[in-house]
Amino acid sequence: MTVQEAFGLYNYWIVIFLMMTGFYIVIARENLIKTIIGLNIFQTSVFLLYITMGKVHDGTAPILRPGESPEHHSSSAGAETEHAAAEATHIIQPVGFDEDVIEAAGHALEPTIYSNPLPSVLMLTAIVVGIATTALALALIVRIREDYGTIEENEILELDRNS
Amino acid sequence: MIIIDIAILALLAATAVTVARIQNLWAAVMFTGIYSFLGASWMLILDAPDVAFTEAAVGAGIATVLMLGTLALTGLKEKPITKFPLGSLLVVTITGITLVYGTLDMPRFGDPNAPIHLHPSPTFVEKSQPDMHGLPNVVTAVLASYRGYDTLGETAVIFTAGIAVLLILRKDAKEPGESSGEEPS
Amino acid sequence: MISFPIIRVVTKILIPYILLFAMYVQFHGDFGPGGGFQAGVIFAAAIILYALVFGLQAAKRVAPPWAVEKLIALGVVVYAGTGIACMLCGGNFLDYNALDHHWLTELPAYIDFLPGEKPHHFLPTGQHLGIFLVELGVGITVTAVMTMIFYAFAGRERLANTTKGPLG
Lengths: 163, 185, 168
Fold this sequence. Notes:
With 185 residues, chain B is mainly α. Chain B has helices spanning 2-21, 25-45, 49-73, 86-102, 115-118, 122-131, 138-146, 148-169. Chain B has two domains: 1-82; 116-173 and 181-185, no CATH class.
């Protein structure tokens, strides 16, 4: 494995290290709040894993460059032809992952490489669901503290066994 | 740019190890906020500004506030560990080595020919230009239009979490005029 | 923290801009990074900042809990209602192309009081309208849920230690 290959995999190894740190905190620590923090670290490392897979070398954020003015809304049937005819002097960008060079109205465009938007979308959902479960877990911890008087797992198990 | 990549990832790893070892819970929550912030910076470098935005706002903002609110109600210190957790370290190391062995097959960082770019989705960026009549942000287009049904489910999940927290934590005895629900027995 | 003058004055200056930024992120989510979730969290952050500096009672006067509870459900209703409106206009559930030529969006074209050339219609249609309403629903729900969770945590009294446990 060459240094070049190793560097290409460096980000996955760091993500695995973060995952394992979070995992270790969950199983080895007995304070409940520490457990939730470890779960949070685990979740964030999984997000990082997906987003590193979506990056394309020399790419940019998946926000299309302004190629045409969005003011006119015509009927969707004739949209493409109308846009093509009326905005012939504007540069209409075809977008994709390969380097296509398109010439419109005599202009030569630079090829635009975009990173993959799909992992971003999935992780957006996952982040918000993660905070929802964290909030719920913290609420449960507050109630456990009020009922048992402690938030260390071994003490809670002792109290349960003795009562 | 390579130096920034290596540096941020190393800082992330160092912050995670610090959170594992620290015993003062207040400091641990602050380091979790730093961890989320570093994660958001790394996501921005990876061309995902929407996710970076959300992670910074949610992870470094709301999660820190909620954890500090919980700390105010429970306690500030973790009990020191008595015996060395050898079994946990062993499990974690074996899992880590197995996963690292699994990454040897994965596509290299930034490879444009990775399967994720070729198989389901090279059309999203191309399709959203004619479909959306000029909406530039592809991520919002996918989230709200192409995958709108999933976002409806996610909104329902947030709704459920809010209702559940209200059910668990609702009553406070000091304000008799405020709570309108019955007291659980 | 109300007794520290710097924090009080700076918070009073900053909070309108935070709210404005939240609305910017909400409504410009189509044109740049942003959208419903981020805007909802920033809006809730403004309310939480106000509660931290001026006290929970003052924040509950500004955003009363009974109103915030109704907003939690209103966001989901707006989202699902958009889907049902698409069905009523003839398309599938959450098919925004059905909203393209609804009579409501054509209405301003018949209003005569505008001088000069009347625009064809100046409300967004189709995909723009669908995405706008949907993100609005998401933003409302996220704001209300984060604010309500903060009220639930911050409004709770701390019980004294009953058994042995780590003292804080």
